[in-house]
Amino acid sequence: MTPRPYQLTGSHFLAARRFALLADQMRVGKSPQAIMAADDVAAKRVLVLCPAIATFQWRQHWIDWSNRSPATIIGRDIDLAEPGVYVASYNRAVQHRDALRAAPRWDVIIVDEAHFAKSPDAQRTSLVYGKSGVGWNANRIWALTGTPAPNHAGEMWAMLRAFGVVRCTYDEFIRYYCHYDWKTGRVFGNKREHLTELRNLIAPFTLRRTLAQVAPDMPKIAY
Description:
By secondary structure, the chain is of the alpha/beta class.
C-alpha cells in the first residue's frame, strides 16, 4: 500500500515518542500510521489491543502495510514466547492479563479505540494503564482514537497518569477540569476555563487531523 504524506507524518510522530496519542478523525487512517511507526522503530514484539470486531481487520492491516509475517490473533490458547505481532481483543487480553504481563517485554503496545479504556474502574483500563497491567511491560504505548474523551476530560485521566503527564488522583483531576455532581457522582462536561490548560497539557504527545484537513478530495461515507 502507498501511504499518503500526512500518514508518513503521523508515523514519524509516533516513532519519535515513547507515549503518544494519535487522535485523527475516523477514516484518516490511524492503523497504517501505527504499523509504519512500529516498522520505523524496528519493533520485534508488538501487541495490538482492540475491540473484538477489529481483530481480523488489524491482521489484514499488517499484511497490507508491513513486510513482516502476518499477525497472530490471540485466542483461548496463548504462546507469546516468539517475536512477532499479536492482536487481542480487550476482553481476551483481560483473560490473559497475567500471561501478557509476564511475556518478554513488548517493544510497542498499540491501543486501538483507546476510549474503550477510559473508566478508571474498568478491567480493560487497568489492563492497559494500571501498575499491574500490560502497559508497564512495554517500551512504547501508542493510543489511537478519534474520540479520546467522548463525554468529559476525566476519561483521559488514566492515560495521562500512565504517561506521566499528571500525578493527581482521579477525583482531584475531575474536580479541577470537570463539572461534577457530588451528590449523584455524575460528571457532566468540562470546565471551559481550564480547557486551554488541558489542551496544552496533552499537546506534546498528541496529533490530531480531520479528514477535511488531510484528504479533502475523499468522499464522505455513504450509509
